Amino acid sequence: MPGSPTAPDQHNPDQHDLGKRAPGDRAPRKALPAAELARTVVFAAFIAVLGIFPGFYLGGAAVPIVLQNMGPLLAGSMLGARRGGAAVLLFLALVALGLPLLSGGRGGIAVFAGPSGGFLVGYVLSAVVVGLIVQRAAPRPGLPILLLANIAGVAVDYLVGIPYWAAFTGDLRAAAIQSLVFVPGDAAKLVLVSLVAAAVHRAVPAVLTGSPRNAED
Protein backbone atom coordinates (compact mmCIF):
# COMPACT_ATOMS: atom_id res chain seq x y z
CA MET A 1 0.00 0.00 0.00
CA PRO A 2 1.24 3.55 -0.67
CA GLY A 3 2.74 5.15 2.43
CA SER A 4 3.22 1.86 4.28
CA PRO A 5 6.77 1.06 5.53
CA THR A 6 8.78 -1.28 3.37
CA ALA A 7 9.47 -4.60 5.05
CA PRO A 8 13.11 -5.61 5.15
CA ASP A 9 14.16 -8.02 2.45
CA GLN A 10 14.76 -11.36 4.14
CA HIS A 11 17.27 -12.26 1.43
CA ASN A 12 19.34 -9.08 1.84
CA PRO A 13 21.45 -9.26 5.04
CA ASP A 14 22.75 -5.74 4.43
CA GLN A 15 19.38 -4.25 5.41
CA HIS A 16 19.47 -6.07 8.74
CA ASP A 17 23.09 -4.98 9.34
CA LEU A 18 22.12 -1.32 8.87
CA GLY A 19 19.97 -1.52 11.94
CA LYS A 20 22.58 -3.30 14.00
CA ARG A 21 25.69 -1.17 13.38
CA ALA A 22 25.83 2.46 14.38
CA PRO A 23 27.38 4.90 11.87
CA GLY A 24 30.39 5.49 14.11
CA ASP A 25 31.10 1.82 14.79
CA ARG A 26 34.51 0.56 13.77
CA ALA A 27 34.97 -2.38 11.44
CA PRO A 28 35.92 -5.67 13.10
CA ARG A 29 39.64 -6.17 13.73
CA LYS A 30 41.46 -8.28 11.18
CA ALA A 31 42.97 -10.54 13.82
CA LEU A 32 42.38 -11.35 17.44
CA PRO A 33 44.78 -9.61 19.84
CA ALA A 34 45.89 -13.01 21.13
CA ALA A 35 46.80 -14.14 17.62
CA GLU A 36 48.75 -10.95 16.98
CA LEU A 37 50.59 -11.35 20.27
CA ALA A 38 51.46 -14.94 19.40
CA ARG A 39 52.97 -13.91 16.06
CA THR A 40 54.94 -11.15 17.74
CA VAL A 41 56.36 -13.49 20.38
CA VAL A 42 57.22 -16.18 17.84
CA PHE A 43 59.21 -13.78 15.68
CA ALA A 44 60.97 -12.26 18.68
CA ALA A 45 62.00 -15.79 19.62
CA PHE A 46 63.13 -16.45 16.05
CA ILE A 47 65.40 -13.39 16.12
CA ALA A 48 66.84 -14.65 19.40
CA VAL A 49 67.50 -18.10 17.90
CA LEU A 50 69.51 -16.48 15.10
CA GLY A 51 71.82 -15.21 17.83
CA ILE A 52 73.03 -18.77 18.39
CA PHE A 53 75.21 -18.33 15.31
CA PRO A 54 78.31 -16.39 16.38
CA GLY A 55 79.30 -13.20 14.63
CA PHE A 56 82.73 -12.56 13.18
CA TYR A 57 84.77 -9.50 12.31
CA LEU A 58 86.27 -8.59 8.95
CA GLY A 59 88.50 -5.79 7.76
CA GLY A 60 89.18 -4.46 11.23
CA ALA A 61 85.53 -3.44 11.64
CA ALA A 62 84.31 -2.90 15.20
CA VAL A 63 80.86 -4.24 14.28
CA PRO A 64 80.47 -8.01 13.73
CA ILE A 65 78.89 -9.70 10.74
CA VAL A 66 75.89 -11.66 12.04
CA LEU A 67 72.90 -13.64 10.81
CA GLN A 68 70.64 -11.91 13.31
CA ASN A 69 69.84 -8.96 11.05
CA MET A 70 67.83 -11.38 8.92
CA GLY A 71 65.26 -11.51 11.73
CA PRO A 72 63.93 -7.94 11.43
CA LEU A 73 63.78 -8.28 7.63
CA LEU A 74 61.76 -11.47 7.87
CA ALA A 75 59.53 -10.03 10.60
CA GLY A 76 58.64 -7.04 8.43
CA SER A 77 58.22 -9.24 5.34
CA MET A 78 55.91 -11.70 7.08
CA LEU A 79 54.04 -9.65 9.67
CA GLY A 80 53.92 -6.13 8.28
CA ALA A 81 55.04 -2.89 9.88
CA ARG A 82 53.15 -2.95 13.18
CA ARG A 83 53.59 -6.57 14.24
CA GLY A 84 57.05 -6.84 12.70
CA GLY A 85 58.24 -3.72 14.50
CA ALA A 86 56.68 -4.94 17.74
CA ALA A 87 58.52 -8.27 17.46
CA VAL A 88 61.86 -6.48 17.11
CA LEU A 89 61.05 -4.12 19.98
CA LEU A 90 60.21 -7.08 22.20
CA PHE A 91 63.49 -8.77 21.30
CA LEU A 92 65.53 -5.62 21.97
CA ALA A 93 63.70 -5.05 25.26
CA LEU A 94 64.75 -8.52 26.42
CA VAL A 95 68.33 -7.76 25.36
CA ALA A 96 68.26 -4.48 27.29
CA LEU A 97 67.04 -6.36 30.37
CA GLY A 98 70.24 -8.39 30.25
CA LEU A 99 69.29 -11.56 28.41
CA PRO A 100 72.28 -12.74 26.31
CA LEU A 101 70.30 -13.02 23.08
CA LEU A 102 72.63 -11.24 20.69
CA SER A 103 75.25 -13.09 18.66
CA GLY A 104 78.16 -14.06 20.87
CA GLY A 105 75.95 -14.20 23.97
CA ARG A 106 75.86 -10.43 24.38
CA GLY A 107 73.14 -8.64 26.28
CA GLY A 108 72.43 -5.76 28.62
CA ILE A 109 71.88 -2.06 28.10
CA ALA A 110 75.61 -1.52 27.48
CA VAL A 111 75.44 -3.12 24.03
CA PHE A 112 73.34 -0.19 22.84
CA ALA A 113 76.12 2.19 23.86
CA GLY A 114 78.72 0.34 21.77
CA PRO A 115 79.66 0.72 18.09
CA SER A 116 76.93 -1.69 16.96
CA GLY A 117 74.20 0.06 18.97
CA GLY A 118 72.97 2.05 16.00
CA PHE A 119 72.50 -1.07 13.92
CA LEU A 120 70.45 -2.60 16.75
CA VAL A 121 68.18 0.45 16.91
CA GLY A 122 68.00 0.33 13.13
CA TYR A 123 66.54 -3.18 13.37
CA VAL A 124 63.22 -1.66 14.46
CA LEU A 125 63.09 0.86 11.62
CA SER A 126 64.19 -1.83 9.20
CA ALA A 127 61.26 -4.07 10.12
CA VAL A 128 58.81 -1.16 9.93
CA VAL A 129 60.03 0.04 6.52
CA VAL A 130 59.97 -3.47 5.08
CA GLY A 131 56.48 -4.01 6.48
CA LEU A 132 55.11 -0.75 5.10
CA ILE A 133 56.30 -1.59 1.59
CA VAL A 134 55.12 -5.20 1.71
CA GLN A 135 51.68 -4.21 3.02
CA ARG A 136 51.04 -2.24 -0.16
CA ALA A 137 51.02 -5.54 -2.05
CA ALA A 138 49.01 -7.52 0.53
CA PRO A 139 47.81 -10.21 0.79
CA ARG A 140 50.20 -11.85 -1.71
CA PRO A 141 53.33 -9.73 -2.17
CA GLY A 142 55.52 -11.08 -4.95
CA LEU A 143 59.26 -11.54 -5.03
CA PRO A 144 60.04 -8.17 -6.72
CA ILE A 145 58.20 -6.23 -4.00
CA LEU A 146 59.83 -8.28 -1.27
CA LEU A 147 63.29 -7.71 -2.74
CA LEU A 148 62.64 -3.96 -2.96
CA ALA A 149 61.31 -3.90 0.60
CA ASN A 150 64.29 -5.75 2.02
CA ILE A 151 66.81 -3.63 0.13
CA ALA A 152 65.12 -0.60 1.68
CA GLY A 153 65.19 -2.27 5.10
CA VAL A 154 68.94 -2.93 4.92
CA ALA A 155 69.56 0.61 3.67
CA VAL A 156 67.65 2.09 6.61
CA ASP A 157 69.68 0.00 9.05
CA TYR A 158 72.87 1.33 7.46
CA LEU A 159 71.59 4.91 7.59
CA VAL A 160 71.12 4.59 11.35
CA GLY A 161 74.04 2.32 12.16
CA ILE A 162 76.89 3.95 10.23
CA PRO A 163 76.59 7.47 11.74
CA TYR A 164 76.28 5.90 15.20
CA TRP A 165 79.40 3.85 14.53
CA ALA A 166 81.16 7.00 13.28
CA ALA A 167 80.54 8.62 16.66
CA PHE A 168 83.03 6.10 18.06
CA THR A 169 85.58 6.27 15.25
CA GLY A 170 85.33 10.03 14.82
CA ASP A 171 85.28 9.58 11.05
CA LEU A 172 82.03 9.09 9.12
CA ARG A 173 83.87 8.35 5.88
CA ALA A 174 85.98 5.64 7.53
CA ALA A 175 82.90 4.04 9.10
CA ALA A 176 81.11 4.07 5.75
CA ILE A 177 84.08 2.46 4.00
CA GLN A 178 84.46 -0.20 6.69
CA SER A 179 80.75 -1.01 6.45
CA LEU A 180 81.28 -2.13 2.84
CA VAL A 181 82.39 -5.50 4.21
CA PHE A 182 78.75 -6.08 5.24
CA VAL A 183 77.29 -5.54 1.76
CA PRO A 184 77.90 -8.94 0.09
CA GLY A 185 76.59 -10.90 3.06
CA ASP A 186 73.61 -8.61 3.58
CA ALA A 187 72.76 -8.86 -0.13
CA ALA A 188 72.72 -12.65 0.10
CA LYS A 189 70.67 -12.55 3.30
CA LEU A 190 68.01 -10.19 1.92
CA VAL A 191 67.62 -12.37 -1.18
CA LEU A 192 67.17 -15.45 1.01
CA VAL A 193 64.64 -13.66 3.24
CA SER A 194 62.71 -12.48 0.17
CA LEU A 195 62.58 -15.97 -1.32
CA VAL A 196 61.38 -17.50 1.95
CA ALA A 197 58.76 -14.79 2.49
CA ALA A 198 57.48 -15.06 -1.10
CA ALA A 199 57.04 -18.82 -0.71
CA VAL A 200 55.19 -18.43 2.59
CA HIS A 201 52.90 -15.70 1.24
CA ARG A 202 51.98 -17.89 -1.72
CA ALA A 203 51.16 -20.80 0.56
CA VAL A 204 49.56 -18.88 3.44
CA PRO A 205 48.39 -15.39 2.36
CA ALA A 206 46.75 -14.84 5.77
CA VAL A 207 50.19 -14.54 7.40
CA LEU A 208 50.41 -10.87 6.45
CA THR A 209 46.76 -9.86 6.70
CA GLY A 210 46.16 -11.82 9.89
CA SER A 211 42.78 -12.91 8.55
CA PRO A 212 41.94 -15.83 6.26
CA ARG A 213 38.84 -13.94 5.21
CA ASN A 214 40.86 -10.99 3.93
CA ALA A 215 43.30 -13.28 2.19
CA GLU A 216 40.49 -14.65 0.04
CA ASP A 217 39.25 -11.23 -1.06
From TrEMBL:
Chain ranges passing through the membrane: 41-63, 84-103, 109-133, 145-167
Compartment annotation: Cell membrane
InterPro entries: BioY (IPR003784)
Keywords: Cell membrane, Membrane, Transmembrane, Transmembrane helix, Transport
Membrane topology annotation: Multi-pass membrane protein
CC terms in the record's Gene Ontology section: plasma membrane
Molecular-function annotations in GO: biotin transmembrane transporter activity
Main location: membrane
Domain of life: Bacteria
Entry-linked Pfam families: BioY (PF02632)
Chain positions covered by the region annotation Disordered: 1-29
Similarity-based family: Belongs to the BioY family.
PANTHER family in the record: BIOTIN TRANSPORTER BIOY (PTHR34295), BIOTIN TRANSPORTER BIOY-RELATED (PTHR34295:SF4)
Protein name (database record): Biotin transporter
Species this protein is from: Haloactinomyces albus
